[in-house]
Structures are given as structure tokens and as C-alpha cells.
Amino acid sequence: MSLTTRTLKWYRLEDATARALILLITISENPLKLKAGNFIDISLRTFGNVSNTAILLNLFNNKINIMKMISEARKSVSNKDMHLF
């Protein structure tokens, strides 16, 4: 974006297009910020990283819970089989 705006001959553009370009440059200078709990500003990149981490931790926790359920089911089946003998 910065290379294009520096090399573009904006003074040859139509007025409306030049104004739109100036607005685009101005907006792109300030990165998007999100409010977290109305007390901290976070960038879109930080929000994405936190979201990805939370999703991965949730998936990992679910996998552990499923493994525990399978282990308990196997123990239950093997205990029932032992009572038959």
C-alpha cells in the first residue's frame, strides 16, 4: 500500500478519486483497534491470536475429556466381563 501511494501520480487523478485516495491513506495509518472489556485496546492481529489460542485450548480440552470417557468406558466393560467369570 505504501509503495503504491508513494509512486502513484495522484495529482493526475480526478478530484473525487484523489480525495478517496487521501481518505484511504489516512485510514490505513491508524490500525483497527478493538475494545476488550471496555478497558484495553487490542489490535485485530492480537484479537485473532487470542481467539486462535482459545479455540486450540478448547479443542485440546475436549480431546482430553473424550479420551477420559473412552478410558472409563473400557474399564467399565472390562469390569463387567470380569464379573461374568
Report on this model:
The protein is 73% helix and 9% strand. With 85 residues, it is mainly alpha-helical. The chain has helices spanning 2-7, 15-29, 44-84; strands at residues 33-36, 40-43. It is rod-shaped and about 85 Å long. It is built from 3 helices and 2 strands, in the order H-H-E-E-H. The mean pLDDT is 80. The chain has a two-stranded antiparallel sheet. It has a domain at 45-85. The N and C termini lie far apart (76 Å).
Brief characterization of the structure:
With 85 residues, this protein is mostly helical. Helix content is 73%, strand content 9%.
Task: Describe the secondary-structure layout.
Elements: H1 2-7, H2 15-29, E1 33-36, E2 40-43, H3 44-84
Antiparallel strand pairs: 1-2
Distance between the termini: 76 Å
Q: Rg, please?
A: 28 Å
Tally of contiguous helical segments: 3
Shape: rod-shaped
Largest sheet: 2 strands, antiparallel
Fraction of residues in H or I helices:
over 70%
Write a concise keyword list for the protein shown above.
85 residues, mainly alpha, two-stranded antiparallel sheet, 3 helices, 2 strands, 73% helix, 9% strand, rod-shaped
